[in-house]
Amino acid sequence: MSEEQTHRQIGKGWRLALVLGMLAAITFGIGFKLISLYVEEQEFLQNQGDARSLRVIQVPAHRGIITDRNGDPIAVSAPVATVWVDPKMADLNHVSLAKLAQELGTSRTALVKKISAKRGKRFMYLKRQVEPVVADRIRALKVPGIHVERDYKRFYPAGEVASHLVGFTNRDGKGQEGLELSYEKALRAEPGKQLVLKDLLGRTVKHIRSESAAQHGQSLQLTIDMRLQYLAYRELKAAVTAHKADAASLVMLDAKTGEVLAMANYPSYNPNNPADRVSSTIRNRAVTDLFEPGSTMKPMTVAAALMSGKYGMRSVVDTTPGYMRVKGKTIRDHRNYGELDITGIITKSSNVGSAKLALSLEPGTLHHLLQNVGLGTATGIGFPGERSGRLPYLAESQILQRATMSYGYGLSVTPLQLAQAYLPLANDGILSPVSLLHTEKPLPPVRVMPAQVARSVRGMMETVISIKGTGKQASIPGYRVAGKTGTVHKVGNGGYIEDQYISVFAGIAPASDPKVITVVMVDNPRNQEYYGGEVAAPIFSRAVGGTLRLLNVPPDNLIQPDQRVDQQMVQR
Q1: Could you tell me the pTM of the whole model?
Q2: Burial (0-12, 13-18, 19+ Cβ within 10 Å), 396
Q3: What is the CA radius of gyration of the chain?
Q4: Which residues have a catalytic role annotated?
Q5: pLDDT for residue 57 is more than 70
């Protein structure tokens, strides 16, 4: 081998060794780095990888269902979807972007502009409460950065019929009015959390584990019977239209248990339509609006007189000459009724007779009874905004106020309070707590008047429905009805308004074995008729008549009301 060949061989060996050495060094460096990353920086790298691919997502939970006493839904959570976008990942040149904009109810240009304005963000709502069918079409477009997630929307099957009672929620599912607000804590749902693996386009690849389970809201069963609620609402709507009234309310209670069977108001609103919610129509007038009960308090005055022991069924009060002066003021009847027995004071609705009864009793007697039947205090049903009314305590020297209170002036009640006050008259002197929620363990009832007094006053109230009484239009064919009419002037900033009235009727049916108590209040009827017997009593007749038939209550009256009253007069 020549010297030149030897040098070439040495050069080749050196270069080969250098290359091999470099490869070895690179391999060693890579291995060292891998070991370093695996041993020393594993936690950091794992966190960085998880931050880019692992996400904690919410698992939707539905709000509690509200049903009536028969299990029919009044408020439910219907499945919908929420469409949102990750602006950083959104493909604004995607071929399906125009179709996406159409599904969202906008234009492609407006959609691109909206997303571009938030390009530096990672989350933005595009549309909430999307119908499932639309959501499926959006999901099928597979536009990068666009996400569709399951959600729930509150829906009210009864619409305006039960809106004042149930209320509504906002877009985030939080109660804003009615029972939705007062029972927010029980109805509220708690979404669950789930750890998932997502790809670069934000699509869920794998469900890793559940972080917390979704907790659905508790369901509420009301005492309301939606059949009766529909019936009550229909009659109120027709009456407000016919009498050109401002508003009307109806409350119906179970005479034995105090459960609210119906609570309706008109005008109303559709809780499914946010645009329909205006301040003048959303309040529940049956528990928030106060009015002077007028002559519907006269049965209480008579009951207080009988309980005092100073009066009996045959006692007579002279109302001649049809008016009386008290502290410079005149209390009048419609005409001179002369001598009236206790029953006649209720039948003829005599203000003079009621006032004379009240002034002959100890000063606190009537106030004590009215307080015992629940006036002046909230009913305790837990409804937001419920008013407690006004029942002033009157000193012995306040003679005029004591006289006017006997026929329902100088105090104020809600329709629900007035219905509650009639419970003892229907239930032989026993007052049951009023309730809106079905419960297996209701609060115990209390006795507030002797059974015989309650039965006697209820019998007197039947004469109001006779042809000789003020409430004959409240009669129900086939059934005995006990009730009382009331007509009072509305109160304004300057006192009583001369030409505006509240028309009221409170009644019990059937009188022989009471099943329901119903109070009807009509605010400011303007179509000539305004007396309680002309405006409110016919509403009672139609609503309660339909109720008794729906509840299969057997008739208890096979003779005409005026004939029965004549028989009662003969017996007395």
Answers
A1: 0.82
A2: exposed
A3: 37
A4: 295
A5: no
